[in-house]
Write a structure and sequence with these properties.
It is built from 14 helices and 15 strands. The strands form 3 sheets. An 8-stranded mixed β-sheet has the order 5-6-4-1-7-9-10-8, with helices on both faces. It has a 5-stranded mixed β-sheet with strand order 12-11-13-14-15. The chain binds adenosine-5'-diphosphate and the ligand N[C@@H](CCC(=O)OP(=O)(O)O)C(=O)O. This is Glutamate 5-kinase.
């Protein structure tokens, strides 16, 4: 963990954490592993402790959105299931049972402090398509103005394999972006990011200033078998996604929630290292699963990578995969190196006859609509 150790030596551990104490709007995400146990369903102590901390912060004037996992885990015991099911339909059924139970507990626990909660179930599409995410923003913003704590989860019961986030860490980062939060707090069953698997005498990483601080750090999957999904990997991705787009991020344990929100020196702090980007592009860079690949000639690679231009049919030499207009695709050079990801304007059926041709020719021959770029520069992120 050489680079992390040097970051810890030069940056005070409490660096910037005060931003949490004064934040106007915070997204807090809590994982299944700290809310539930496979045998006992919802953990009353953990849920109540979390609600106490968040309600106190809300009552002191900070707007809070809670992204809560745990629906599937909470639904297992009532359905007589001993472990998290593998098939999607049973997971959907468990989520449908558990989500109601979770909301009932949150309503009670926050209600004890005079705080109203609401349920907001989102699919990946709601955050990707502009019309839908504008709608989602409006609803969440209004709820926050009304003093409510919205409790967000993925809409597991209707989300399919293709469009599923699967973990709520990256969903929380996108929600933080959507509502223009000042900070994102990721709560789990581990108190910080360690430089290796926590059980083996690993050391705390207090501050991550950028990707260089993660070099050589061994980041693993979930700790409690069968409960959490993403593990530390998706938390680091989510925190990096937030910090890279102008939002402070902190990873710590659920019992540390109150201390974290007071700006105390707990957990791992991700320092802001980039500016805000459209939600669509964050999605494309970090979450979207690609449906195909466009192979470019060298000139087109240079144009996309160095001159930041839109991708035209003339520079494409091959198309792989089956995709529809609007899907995410990889954009690669002739040697197979992926240089970008983009939202494509044509389907994989339409594209082959367009390759290598000018947009003008295509417009004249095939009609207007075929004179557009294949990927617009605004729908393209370099990787
Ligand atoms: N380098 C690391 N530092 C901290 N925790 C790690 C690391 N690598 C793997 N983990 C594991 O990640 C787990 C947290 O992820 P997960 O179980 O998915 O939690 P949640 O349900 O809260 O999202 C921890 O229990 C821990 O064992
Ligand atoms: N939406 C799912 C959460 C997925 C999940 O387990 O996430 P996490 O525990 O945060 O790794 C649920 O409510 O069960």
């Amino acid at each position: 963990m050489s680079s992390s150790a040097s970051a810890a030596d030069t940056v005070p551990a409490a660096a910037d954490r005060g931003a949490l104490a004064t934040a106007r709007r915070v997204v807090v995400k809590v994982g299944s592993s700290s809310l539930t146990s496979i045998k006992g369903g919802i953990s009353e102590e953990s849920l109540t402790g979390l609600a106490d901390a968040l309600a106190a912060k809300r009552n002191s004037g900070t707007e809070i959105i809670l992204v809560s996992s745990g629906a599937i885990a909470a639904g297992l015991a009532p359905l007589g299931l001993a472990k998290r099911p593998r098939d999607l339909a049973t997971q959907q059924a468990a989520a449908s049972v558990g989500q109601g139970l979770l909301m009932a507990r949150y309503t009670q626990a926050f209600g004890a402090h005079g705080v109203t909660v609401s349920q907001v179930l989102l699919t990946a599409e709601d955050l990707m398509r502009r019309s839908q995410h504008t709608n989602a923003f409006r609803a969440l913003d209004r709820l926050l103005n009304l003093g409510v704590v919205p409790v967000v989860n993925e809409n597991d019961t209707v989300a399919t394999h293709e469009i599923r986030f699967g973990d709520n860490d990256r969903l929380a980062a996108l929600v933080a972006h959507l509502v223009r939060a000042d900070a994102l707090v990721l709560l789990s069953d581990v108190d910080c990011l360690y430089d290796g698997p926590p059980a083996q005498g690993a050391r705390r990483i207090p501050v991550v200033g950028g990707p260089h601080d993660l070099e050589g750090v061994s980041i693993g999957r979930t700790g409690k078998a069968g409960v959490g999904t993403g593990g530390m990997v998706t938390k680091v991705e989510a925190a990096s996604m937030a910090a890279g787009s102008g939002i402070h991020a902190l990873v710590t344990s659920t019992p540390n929630a109150a201390a974290a929100l007071n700006g105390e020196d707990v957990g791992t702090w991700f320092t802001i290292n980039g500016s805000r980007k459209p939600v669509r592009l964050l999605w494309l860079a970090h979450v979207a699963s690609v449906q195909g690949r466009l192979v470019l000639d060298d000139g087109a690679v240079r144009a996309v990578r160095h001159h930041r231009t839109s991708l035209l049919p003339a520079g494409i030499s091959a198309v792989h995969g089956a995709f529809e207009a609007g899907d995410a695709v990889e954009i690669a050079g002739a040697d197979g190196t992926v240089v970008a990801r983009g939202l494509v304007n044509y389907s994989s059926e339409e594209l082959p006859r367009m390759l290598g041709r000018s947009t003008r020719d295509l417009g004249e021959e095939l009609g207007t609509g075929y004179d557009r770029e294949v990927v617009h520069v605004d729908d393209l992120v370099l990787v």
